[in-house]
Amino acid sequence: MKDVSPMTAAVDVLRRSASVRASAYFTSMVGVLLAAYRLPYDPENPFTQFVQPKAFPGVVTITDLFTRLRPEDRAVWTRRPTAANLADLTRGVALGLAASAATLGVGMAKGWMSAPAWGWKGERSQGTVLASVALTAAQQATGVFNEEIIFRGYGLDTLRAAVGLPAAVAISTTLFARAHGPGWKRFVGLGAAGLLLTLLRLRTGNLWLAAGFHWGWNIAQVSLFGPKEGAPSLRPLHLHGPDAWVGRPGEPDPGWLQILTTVIMAALAGMELKRSRARQEGVDLPR
């Protein structure tokens, strides 16, 4: 009888068991994030201020290794974007920008926040502000990639194979919310955001629309209307309260305004997904 090496046996178990594969993948992603947090911060390289750019190489490398376990996963991972995919990405960015701007607009109309001047009207030069906007947009792109691949991409697909779609959505959404830190309000707000993004992914069958929305929403709150205490943005945002409703735009701590907006959008996305699937199955839904 031929001896099988421990490595070969482990790979075989990963290939055959979706539950083991999902557990190993998410555990490895926790390791990547913990390692990224421990990497030294280089003050001369502002790109390393946030953990996501530092975690990006690990997320790409480990996800690539996991997709090599099964041909069907490899085909999805190496698939080239189509014109329709890029259209979904563009549409997602526009929707994310619009949704975030509308949320901030409500806050401004209520007098809870304001953006009275361009970022270069203060102590910063126009070139410094524009460079900061470009840098934060790139940082957000790495974060969006990491989170979409882990929680709505390979991670969700593997969980779905292991426990079915409803449980997979519940688990991945919970993990997404918890990955953003402690606090029940943060958990509720990020949970609603994670559910919204998952529904967008399920609506199209790929990550392009969800990733575009995620990036558009984020850059509206860090590059376009970022808090004045943060990195220079085009229109620094001044917060006037109340804190419970305003929260901290651009940070994981949401206010009730952002939570309610996200919950409403998730509900609408859920109804649209249900209608879309009913149309595909030839079922008429009540209007």
Give the topology:
Layout lengths: L5 H11 L1 H21 L12 H17 L3 H7 L5 H27 L3 E2 L11 H38 L1 H14 L5 H21 L3 H17 L13 E2 L3 H4 L9 H25 L7
Question: How does this model look, in words?
Answer:
Helix 8 packs across helix 9 (208-224). The chain is built from eleven helices and two strands. It has a domain at 85-280. The chain has a two-stranded antiparallel ribbon. 70% of the residues lie in helices and 1% in strands. The protein is mainly alpha-helical. It is globular and about 70 Å long. The chain has helices spanning 6-16, 18-38, 51-67, 71-77, 83-109, 126-163, 165-178, 184-204, 208-224, 243-246, 256-280; strands spanning 113-114, 238-239. The mean pLDDT is 90.
Describe this protein with a few key phrases.
single chain; 287 residues; mainly alpha; two-stranded antiparallel ribbon; 11 helices; globular
Give a quick summary of the entry.
This protein is mainly α and 287 residues long.
The helix/strand class is mainly alpha
Question: What's the tally of helices?
Answer: 11
Provide the gyration radius in Å.
21 Å
Can you list the strand order of the major beta sheet?
1-2
User: How many beta-strand segments?
Assistant: 2
Major sheet size, sense and barrel closure: 2 strands, antiparallel
Low-confidence stretches: none
| Succession of helices and strands | HHHHHEHHHHEHH
Helix percentage range: over 70%
